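Appendix B. Chain record.
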Amino acid sequence: MTPRLVIVSAVLLLALPLAACSTEEDMRAVDPAGAGEPTASAPSDAVPTPVPDGEVRTSGLVTVLDAGTGPQMCLGAVAESYPPQCGGPAVEGFEWGDVGFEEASGVKWGSYALTGTFDGTTFTATDAIPAALYDAMAEPQEDALGAACESPATTDTDKATPEDMDATLAAASALPGYATAWLTGTTINVAVTEDAAGAETALRETWGGQLCVTTVEKTDADLNAINIELQDALGASLLTSGSFQPDTLDAQVVFDDGSIQEWVDATYGEGLVRVSSALNPVG
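Structure tokens predicted for this chain:
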């Protein structure tokens, strides 16, 4: 499964630029401070706010938390405190049952897969499966971000040390048209917006291990600028957004019947922003 950044706020801004010997997760991060100008016009039309007209279920497990005012369904950020802190739509018709929850400092919480109806404000539960009884294998799995080429080449095994990798990642970030970089095992993957052959030649000065250089249309700064626009446009309906592969933003909203995806396609171009829904129709 593709690694995901730890969610610490209701909307996830992409983190710092590439650092040497970072994790793959860090490799795909974006620097808000380094954001360039948006590459698409700012959203002008009203964003759709669809509401499901039938039963929906959560996309996997979510935290249900009651801090004394009634259960809430936390679809977005959950603070990793004890007890945890989070908020979301009120949940009616929910019963904790005999397993699956904890209590501390007057707070009760647990992880559940919920089914029910949602009117845009309140979720009315018709079924709740605690994490202990939930079959995670039933959920579709996403492939991890792989190498940017089919057969990464090695030219000099004597130039493939961790120090060489550090130097190469630093050199990559200074390339003309540098977009992003990530690791797949010991393979260095670099994406640029121009002159891939020249970029590979430059990187071979410090790296003899497996290397893939590819071209993309958007830099991480471009994606971050669009990400900031999305946060403003989608508002509270946006739960998380981030870039986990080149030329693509992933945005999760509370609910989308396809109309939000159509809106982002019309605004930013088809395929640039992939919208997923935290609540999905049953059946």
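Further analysis of this model is presented in Appendix C.
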